[in-house]
Amino acid sequence: EVQLVESGGGLVQPGGSLRLSCAASGFSFSSYWMTWVRQAPGKGLEWVANIKQDGSEMYCVDAVKGRFTISRDNAKNSLYLQMNSLRAEDTAVYYCARESRAAAGTKNDYWGQGTLVTVSS
Amino acid sequence: EIVLTQSPGTLSLSPGERATLSCRASQSLSSSYLAWYQQKPGQAPRLLIYGASSRATGIPDRFSGSGSGTDFTLTISRLEPEDFAVYYCQQYGNSQRTFGPGTKVDIK
Lengths: 121, 108
Fold this sequence. Notes:
The structure holds two protein chains of two kinds.
Chain A: E1 3-7, E2 10-12, E3 18-25, E4 33-39, E5 45-51, E6 58-60, E7 68-73, E8 78-83, E9 92-102, E10 105-111, E11 115-119
Parallel strand pairs in A: 2-11
Antiparallel strand pairs in A: 1-3, 3-8, 4-5, 4-9, 5-6, 7-8, 9-10, 9-11
Chain B: E1 4-7, E2 10-13, E3 19-29, E4 34-39, E5 46-50, E6 54-55, E7 63-76, E8 86-91, E9 98-99, E10 103-107
Parallel strand pairs in B: 2-10
Antiparallel strand pairs in B: 1-3, 3-7, 4-5, 4-8, 5-6, 8-9, 8-10
């Protein structure tokens, strides 16, 4: 069974840092792109970043460029999101998701339950 | 950046009725790069449709997707009580993925 379990969320002051983790199991982690998506309270989904299987390519939304870094450790079946210079507008539930690419289409087919990050003084 | 617009913002319907949700892209997309998700309060999103029209594993056949280019549609043929939720489209057409703002389907 595919499982994605996020951790590392919590309350942090503006300007602070936090590192989110996503532990993957039940599939060949090193064979998939992985993604972070966030959702501010009462708002819609926002794609944050993704990373290629071997970590050689990474992309992120403009709102977090220069502040957030996505990374992975295939030996540990883990995905990370290092978040620096946090702002109030980064307050959200952060989900990790697996991105599957096939001829029939690309999709985020498995999602974790999310971890809440609150940026507040 | 590819911007997705969803309409209507809210759809008020009764169980058994048909729901038609629209997703429009700011530039043409390959059909392979459009997906639909369902989200209920307090839950993670759930994949419904990928490649514009392929149902994900375990998704009932009352859910169907169609469209091409810039206009895509999610149809729920007969609403069941568990279908009242928020629905998002997402594009994978370029390196910066984006979601639409969502359509809430609520009970009339």
